[in-house]
Amino acid sequence: MYLSVQLSYYPLTDDYKPPIKALIERLEKSGLEVHSNRMSTQVFGEYDSVMTVFSDTLRWSFETYGKAVFTANFIEGDRRPRD
Question: What backbone torsions phi and psi does residue 80 show, to the nearest 5 degrees?
Fold first, then answer.
């Protein structure tokens, strides 16, 4: 099953840009398809891969940067942007 996700990440720190950039870089290296913009990051891939990467990434974020808020919208299917 293919999964499309819109993810927003809000580190609870005054210096919030480095954690956001690091999280996006981590997602980009995961093998999933990742598209970022100023408001959110879209992630696309097979369900099990996406969920495994998200679980690992959330744990990494909390252990590395502390408290944060994640919001995500999940939709089954391929919602990748078409150019």
Answer: -60, 145
Question: What percentage of the chain exceeds 90 in pLDDT?
Answer: 89
Which residues have CB under 8 Å from 50's CB, separation 6+? 3, 5, 32, 43, 44
Architecture of domain 2-76: 2-Layer Sandwich (3.30)
Contact indicator for 46, 4 with CB cutoff of 8 Å: no
Give the 3-state secondary structure of residue 23.
helix
Across 22-46, average pLDDT: 96
Cα–Cα distance, 13 to 74 (Å, whole number): 26
Spans of all domains in the chain = 2-76
Tokens of 10: 């809000």
